[in-house]
Amino acid sequence: MIVEDKVIAISGVGAGLGRTLAGLALRDGARVFLGARTRSTLERVALETDPSGERVGFCRVDINDRERCRSFAAAVLERFGRIDALVNLAALDTAFGSIEDSEPEDWRPSLETNVIVTLQLTKEVVPRLRDAGGGAIVFIGSQASYLPQTQQLAYAASKAALATAVRYLAKELGPSGIRVNSVVPTWMWGQAVEHHLTKRAAESGESLEALVQEITAGMALGAIPTEADVAEAVLFMASDRARAITGQALLVNAGEMYL
Description:
Elements: E1 7-11, H1 17-27, E2 31-36, H2 39-49, E3 56-60, H3 66-80, E4 85-88, H4 104-131, E5 135-140, H5 153-173, E6 178-185, H6 191-204, H7 208-216, H8 227-238, E7 249-252
Parallel strand pairs: 1-2, 1-4, 2-3, 4-5, 5-6, 6-7
Helix pairs in contact: 1-2, 1-8, 3-4, 4-5
């Protein structure tokens, strides 16, 4: 129960990592407040993870909208009285292409979403964490920002910028008792990755098993980390067990690369 009685706000909740994280946070004793653009998604995740509704709350938030970011922070306080941790899951990874076959207008949405407006939401939550006497902010990075992947220039660059922001925020907010870290996955097994690889297998004529073997060939543990593996790392960073850790990037990559 490493986050027992903590209030954890999660932005960008969906059917994948967000739902998994919410479920595991509730398992470990937290109260959870969910944010996403689609109310039906929030209602479904809330019902699936806590049918009683006693330890979960939610509201719609579009992190591109400054006023909605303010409203999200206020809604967490209204529901649970404080915020102990913010987990930023909202991200955009739809821009693919090299520098020669893509254009600046293709790159801007990734940089805007993954850096600027993610920090916009964080800015609105920081005073609430300070009021609570400190807490944790956890961002989700990407191993692509350390280990270049084909066609992921814009996404990787945005996550690299976010990694730098983590270090600056750790220095700035440390005196207020606010820790800032990132959890950095490689491939993350879940519905989205399974769907992507199944589609690739159908298009290439390879089996799904063969594609998975190609991906895991360079992983010391020989298995793609799951959404639950990443969520467990996030909960650790949000917990008091990580009270002396800030400004760090925790790779969840089955030993695919080392920093």
